[in-house]
């Protein structure tokens, strides 16, 4: 089976937009101002586990990649999340958001609130990056194509609907919006260039679909937990 033209391949990837987590019921309730403080805390604590593991996922992709040029490009993602020194980076900014919604740093870092469903989904994503070809791992990150609009919407909603959250808690979103301003074009270019067979193209589409499932599984876990009304 021959590879399809780049434009058709890109269209297949973009067609997965409805599977992204922007339409998840939990996000819809968040944007409508319908979440309790407890629900926001559960979301922040569980999303932390995903944030903590992103750098490990990207390091796994690097370890499989033979291209110095792509490794140089991709390692910037690790720096963005981990920072160049303590107290910097996207992961640190997420902790500040968790603190802004009323959690302590200690309870975020010891992961006492991380739900089994969240842990299972995120660990599966890291393992996926370790065991799949590097270009397939990179393709899973193409949720960047969909994330910019969601983050802008979420930042507006959080500021308007939950005015008790301190502004310094939004640093993760303000920084990340800038980081994904290109809507994943650099990542898309890598995937298109290095997916030269139809099998590789289909693997890339499957990887992006899997990543969407991982993200939605995290929200499924938090939504179910919140619906139980547990303390």
UniProtKB/TrEMBL annotation:
Q: Does the keyword Methyltransferase apply?
A: no
> Which superkingdom, per the lineage?
Bacteria
As recorded in UniProt, coiled-coil segments are none
Catalyzed reactions per annotation: 6-(2-amino-2-carboxyethyl)-7,8-dioxo-1,2,3,4,7,8-hexahydroquinoline-2,4-dicarboxylate + 3 O2 = pyrroloquinoline quinone + 2 H2O2 + 2 H2O + H(+)
Q: Which UniProt keywords apply?
A: Oxidoreductase, PQQ biosynthesis
Under the heading Pfam families, the entry gives: TENA_THI-4
Q: Which residues form the Thiaminase-2/PQQC domain?
A: 13-220
Q: Does the keyword Oxidoreductase apply?
A: yes
Protein family membership: Belongs to the PqqC family.
Instruction: List the protein's name.
Output: Pyrroloquinoline-quinone synthase
Q: Organism, per UniProt?
A: Lentzea albidocapillata
The coding gene here is pqqC
């Amino acid at each position: 089976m021959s590879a399809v033209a780049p434009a058709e391949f890109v269209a297949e990837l973009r067609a997965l937009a409805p599977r992204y987590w922007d339409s998840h019921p939990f996000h819809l309730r968040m944007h409508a101002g319908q979440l309790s403080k407890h629900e926001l805390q559960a979301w922040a604590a569980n999303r932390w586990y995903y944030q903590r593991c992103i750098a490990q996922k990207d390091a796994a992709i690097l370890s499989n990649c033979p291209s110095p040029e792509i490794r140089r490009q991709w390692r910037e993602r690790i720096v963005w999340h981990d920072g160049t020194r303590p107290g910097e980076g996207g992961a640190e900014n997420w902790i500040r958001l968790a603190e802004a919604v009323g959690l302590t740093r200690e309870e975020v870092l010891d992961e006492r609130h991380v739900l089994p469903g969240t842990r299972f989904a995120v660990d599966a994503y890291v393992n996926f990056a370790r065991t799949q070809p590097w270009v397939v791992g990179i393709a899973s990150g193409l949720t960047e194509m969909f994330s910019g609009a969601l983050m802008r919407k979420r930042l507006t909603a959080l500021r308007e609907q939950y005015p008790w959250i301190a502004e310094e808690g939004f640093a993760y979103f303000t920084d990340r919006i800038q980081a994904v301003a290109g809507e994943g074009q650099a990542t898309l270019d890598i995937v298109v260039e290095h997916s030269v067979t139809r099998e590789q193209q289909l693997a890339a589409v499957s990887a992006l679909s899997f990543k969407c499932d991982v993200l939605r599984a995290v929200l499924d876990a938090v939504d179910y937990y919140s619906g139980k009304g547990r303390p």
